[in-house]
Amino acid sequence: MLTDADQAFADALALRGVTVKPAAPNYLEEPRDVYHGRPGFVALPSDTDQVSEVVKACAAAGVGIQPYGGGTGLVGGQVSSEGPVPLIVSLERMNRVRAIYPEEDTIVLDAGVTVSEAQAAAEAAGRLFPVSYGSQDSARIGGGLAVNSGGLNVLRYGMVRDVCLGIEAVLPDGSILNGLKRLRKDNTGYDLRHLLIGSEGTLGIITGAAMRLFPRPAQIATAFLVVRDPGAAIALLTLFRQRAGEAVSAFELISRTNFDMMAETHPEARQPFETFPEWAILTELGTGPGADPEEMMTALFEDAFEAGLVSDGAVAQSGQQRADFWHFRETIPEANRRIGAIASHDISLPLSELAGFIAEAPEAIAAIAPGRIACFGHLGDGNLHYNLFPQRGDTRDAYMARSHDVSDLVHEMVVARGGSFSAEHGVGRKKVGELQRWGDPAKLAAMRAIKTALDPKGIMNPGAVLPLL
Amino acid sequence: MLTDADQAFADALALRGVTVKPAAPNYLEEPRDVYHGRPGFVALPSDTDQVSEVVKACAAAGVGIQPYGGGTGLVGGQVSSEGPVPLIVSLERMNRVRAIYPEEDTIVLDAGVTVSEAQAAAEAAGRLFPVSYGSQDSARIGGGLAVNSGGLNVLRYGMVRDVCLGIEAVLPDGSILNGLKRLRKDNTGYDLRHLLIGSEGTLGIITGAAMRLFPRPAQIATAFLVVRDPGAAIALLTLFRQRAGEAVSAFELISRTNFDMMAETHPEARQPFETFPEWAILTELGTGPGADPEEMMTALFEDAFEAGLVSDGAVAQSGQQRADFWHFRETIPEANRRIGAIASHDISLPLSELAGFIAEAPEAIAAIAPGRIACFGHLGDGNLHYNLFPQRGDTRDAYMARSHDVSDLVHEMVVARGGSFSAEHGVGRKKVGELQRWGDPAKLAAMRAIKTALDPKGIMNPGAVLPLL
């Protein structure tokens, strides 16, 4: 598949000192196995200047670029499966912590640092790096910023964009945007940081970031609570936020099907309840020294029980029990994968619409494909992973023809309630059609105008977010 | 000054139902009295569709638009003093609270609602609207978003952009961007919200916003503390954040000169200290029910005293004393105005650079203009208002010739330390030259490309942020 021209281009880059190799299979795959890359080259620049060199060469030759972080994206944004074969540009060699300033709660990172490495660097300095998600050992900061990743700490600290103070990036003409400001306040022109964050590599390659750090919570209390239904869960969230404020650092909703499926796929996992609940909340309070989150949690549990919001539950009594609770929660996506979803959705809703959606959706979905619905997610953020599975004993094949219709229906219901068809995973290649269908027309026109203005040759991650022209 | 063509254009808008009047003098002035508008017309649309009509008419006729909020901006962004006389578009009649959702902590506002009105609406629903600043009775939400205003609550809640979930705006072609999402998470394409916020009306007119609300702090403790120097102030901030976390809702630095000038201009104001301190901190802790911020504050005060960080201070013992403390702080800008600054600066620095700047700057400034330096600001955000005044008894005239050189010097020192020459006031017309001088070249090129792509005729707030072409 590699032409002489491809080879000549790769050789020219190598002559400028950039490491270029035929792309190994791992660069051509993605976790959901939907998009498949084609053989080509991967460039492995060692610093920002090399990224600039690579982009300039691609711009001059009209070669497309596939930016590549940790490869953990869930919407195919990291794998080009259509159009001319691009040059993959992986920032894995740019993996230095450039500087850490514990006294000002900031860290400056190469984009190729993994989320776990950033956490470790912050911990070594006695601080907390506020981003956390399942794929954090592989996911890199640059990729996380490109898709504006969410995860487990959004309720307390926000999305990745909310904890990013500044970025360095290479724009589509190869120029270097020097925006590594470590400032809380900087009103000096258009906020290109926020424009690039979430643009999924279609407007430039993020090469470095200045990120916020936080004090490490001195004390943590974790509880698994049984609630009657999602409405009660939201009332419980309101109670928690009213009483514990920003100390509420996690508020995860888990539906009955997830407990069933965990028993099916992970019988060894420690189940938090003997009788599987219809709906449960995994919540956590984290506080500084001087406060007693366990006491707060116990008082909240009691008051919620009195108020009829909670019918059962457990406050973790040890670090081991806390770890078991979280292990259970974090294994759910793997259980989902093993069972194999017919259709999966990463949706968000205004909190006041969330219970209505969960009440309405199952019947509507059953009319198309009567499978099992597993719902879990970051309730505190209005973000649900709302997935449809075959009935136990059935295979996916019996349903897959209706997968697309199910997703259309779910997204239609979500959008009608003011929600989003992509809460934290992004658009990538998977949801390009959804964005064209559901996106605001003025927004789409402005996006295209900006894309054309900054990347007139369309070399940056062609086919992601916006359709290929 | 009004031509027949101007009159005909105004009449045509009026025929479409839009209220159009000759602009009263208040639309042609700004608080610092530097920029002066020229007589023209002001359009007063009553809803978003009318804004769209007005913009379409201006786009068709090539007429410039001067968006106008509350008129409180401090960098001349609201007053056009050069180039063709624009149509002023004021959103003062769009002043409805569209909806409030206390249970999901969101409020949807017309852009013409004032900050005070938004606060009142939130309070009536038992919630807190997190934006607050001196000009809040006049400042409107749309203008606040246009400049990404800061203010007194940034430390805890962030800048205005950080508490905005979604915007509605009219783009330069008159199309309406429907982005009033009430979602914490929404990764569906480029974040035009963040691009428009802080673009100071040069990319569109914000007509509505969905904003976050918060639980009202049940208890507040306020203290005025004397610190040795800015380095000690930063160590004190670190201690406060470590111990009280997000409960630290204000951390304001005030230098000696401000106490002197307050005594000069406001002898009736209650001074917090008999002996004026060289440096003082006004700080506040706000917590939910169950916590005791006064106890936390007292313990922090004692520990800071033990550690040698604080030498004197007072924890407010009553609502009246708390109000006196804040009244003192909030009157400082007025005292500054009465004395009359030679040069004033709205700068931010990385926290670890802040003490070094404050140590270095006076001598360098004295070499140019040996006046009195008054420094106050939001230390927790790294944001200082760093202003130079005549020595007592002198007039400004003796210094004004060196005003520009002083500002150049201050900004040069700030930029060298990774800081910003505009922390919270924006660029407006006042700092267009500074942005061209200090702005990153790749950023400036991208800004111009975006401006041209979205506003090819250059009708939106011509001459603000970017120079007139």
From TrEMBL, chains A, B:
PROSITE patterns per the UniProt record, alphabetical: FAD_PCMH (PS51387)
Pfam families the UniProt entry points to: FAD-oxidase_C (PF02913), FAD_binding_4 (PF01565)
One BP annotation, GO: respiratory electron transport chain
Alphabetical keyword list: FAD, Flavoprotein
Gene Ontology terms, MF aspect: catalytic activity; FAD binding
Keyword match Cytoplasm: no
SUPFAM superfamilies in the cross-refs: FAD-binding/transporter-associated domain-like (SSF56176), FAD-linked oxidases, C-terminal domain (SSF55103)
Required cofactor names: FAD
Keyword Flavoprotein: yes
Domain FAD-binding PCMH-type residue range list: 35-216
Family: Belongs to the FAD-binding oxidoreductase/transferase type 4 family.
Listed name of the protein: FAD/FMN-containing dehydrogenase
